[in-house]
Write a structure and sequence with these properties.
This protein is an alpha/beta fold. It is built from six helices and ten strands. The two termini are about 30 Å apart. It binds glycinamide ribonucleotide. The site of glycinamide ribonucleotide (GAR) has 14 residues, from helix 1, strand 5 and helix 6.
Length: about 210
Amino acid sequence: MKLVVLISGRGSNLQAILDAGLPVEVAAVLSNRKSAAGLQLAEARGIPAHSLAHTEFPDRAEFDQAMMRVIDGYAPDLVVLAGYMRILSDAFVQHYAGRLINIHPSLLPSYPGMDTHARALADGVKIHGCTVHLVTPVLDRGPVIVQAAVAVRSDDTAETLGARVLAAEHKIYPLAIRWFAERRLVFGDDGKVNLLNDEGSEQSVFYPGA
Ligand code: GAR
C-alpha cells in the first residue's frame, strides 16, 4: 500500500509512521511550509519531499489543485495528514474521499480546531486524548477510526498534557494505518467505523491509551 504524507512542521507523527515497520511504502512527503522540519526527516530516509508554499498561490482552490497534481503523481492508496495545518477545499476532500485520514489532538467531537490542550484544561475535563479520523468536508468531524484517552493531571500545563497526548498519537496513528493497510476497517453508511477481528466479524475500536 502506498502512502503520501502531508505535514506542516515538526513531523513527529511522520517519524512514528516511518519507525513503525508498517506494511506500507511512504512514497512522498509534502509540506505547505518550506521550513517544515519533517521534510528533512523524509529526505534523510530517501523519501521524495516536496514543499509548495500556499502563500505563492492566489487562493485555496488553486493551491489544493497544485497539491493534488503532485500527490496524484504517486498514485497513493492513502493520503495521511500528519500535522498538516491547512483547511482543505471541498474539491480536495472529495477527490480523496475514503482514502484521506487525519490525526487530531483531542477526543473529537470535543475540541475541534486549535489550542485543544489549553481549552481542555480551561474546561477542567479529566480525560483528554487524540483521534484518528476519516476526513470529510466538515472540519474535524469525519468518522472516528481510533481514539486514545489520556488522563488529565491537576498540575498539567498545555505543554505537559500535550506531550502525553503526542505520545499517544505516535501509537494510534501507525495502528490506524496498519488496520487500513490490512483492510480491516469497515466504514459504515451510518458514519461509524468498525474493525474486523481475526474471525472476520466486526468489533468496535477502543485503544486504552496512555
Ligand atoms: C500533532 O499534535 C497533530 O495532532 C496536530 O499537530 C501536531 C503535529 O505534530 N494536528 C492538528 O492539530 C490538526 N488539526 P507533528 O508535526 O510533530 O506530527
